[in-house]
Write a structure and sequence with these properties.
Blueprint: E1 4-8, E2 10-13, E3 18-24, E4 30-36, E5 43-49, E6 55-57, E7 65-70, E8 75-80, E9 89-96, E10 112-113, E11 117-122
Parallel strand pairs: 2-11
Antiparallel strand pairs: 1-3, 3-8, 4-5, 4-9, 5-6, 7-8, 9-10, 9-11
Length: about 120
């Protein structure tokens, strides 16, 4: 059992920045961020793999968001810059602890989820 505790989020004006953090209570294969806006499906934002240090981003956030991690404390961060109103959503941290053939860009391979953090970007 891995617990994920998210922090960060809030209200920011368009063009501003926010940072989310997610602390995991155990070891993971990969950790990522997804978001879900009202009435929409949960969508992939970014992911980092612990064993390769590779990172991947959704096209919609590429160049504006950065995912990073602190291995010493099993924590992953999402630095969000140049925020837009369309970035408004609940952001969820996700952790994969079991190898899976499912795409890392879908929610399927992730075994644990954080409680969610509201990010609201005003125009």
């Amino acid at each position: 059992q891995v617990q994920l505790v998210e922090s960060g989020g809030g209200l920011v004006q368009a063009g501003g920045s926010l940072t989310l953090s997610c602390a995991a209570s155990g070891r993971t294969i990969s950790m990522g961020w997804f978001r879900q806006a009202p009435g929409k499906k949960r969508e992939f934002v970014a992911v980092t793999r612990w064993n390769t240090n590779n990172t991947y981003y959704a096209n919609s956030v590429q160049g504006r968001f950065a995912i990073s991690r602190d291995n010493a404390v099993n924590t992953v961060y999402l630095q969000m810059n140049s925020l837009k109103p369309e970035d408004t959503a609940v952001y969820y941290c996700a952790a994969q602890v079991v190898w899976s053939s499912a795409s890392m860009f879908s929610p399927a391979p992730y075994n644990y989820w954080g409680q969610g953090a509201q990010v609201t970007v005003s125009s």
